[in-house]
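Posting this for the archive.
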Amino acid sequence: MKCPHCLQNFHESWQKHDIGDAEGSWGFQYTTCPACRRFISYLRLYKSFDARNGAPVPTANDLVIMVLPKTAMRAPLPQEVPAKFAEDYKEACLVLADSPKASAALSRRCLQNLLRDHANVKHSDLNNEIQQVLDSGKLPSHLADAIDAVRVGGNFAAHPIKSKNTGEVIDVEPGEAEWLLDTLEGLFDFYFVQPAVLKRKRDALNQKLKDAGKPPLK
């Protein structure tokens, strides 16, 4: 598995304890990452049981709640991402396991602010603002496809509130909250990280040209 703390891969060895209460049969599972030595644990509410002995059987339908760490398994944001956007993104990651609805609402708000500040869209609802970005043709095709999928996968027709009141907490489609986070990461790289990388390279090259007595790049 990949450690949700340090994102290093390791062969996990889970310790398991089954417990029960009035709601049903729960399992507490935990392990320690050998790379960062941090604790990883979660609770599982079993939905299926062995017909022979009644023992709980893990299935994909079980309710699984991450206990430690509370943050979602996401790589740290590069330092080039402004705090204004990083804060919403990090909070969306933090609540993802407990409430995909809340996570998606935070991500949609972050996406709208990002498009308004850096894609120069005219203020409207998110649906129209995404269309403006697509029509501009300024995004690479993979990012254009990603934000278009936000609109399509987000089912704006069924939930028009998503396009009008972006920060509202409402139902989400399966995988929508995770896709929004992935899309934000791609847009952060496009708007902030890659320009900063190119600037550093350009500055380094201009310094070499200056040292050689040649004019800088324009």
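The chain has a mean pLDDT of 84. Residues 176-211 form the longest helix (36 residues).
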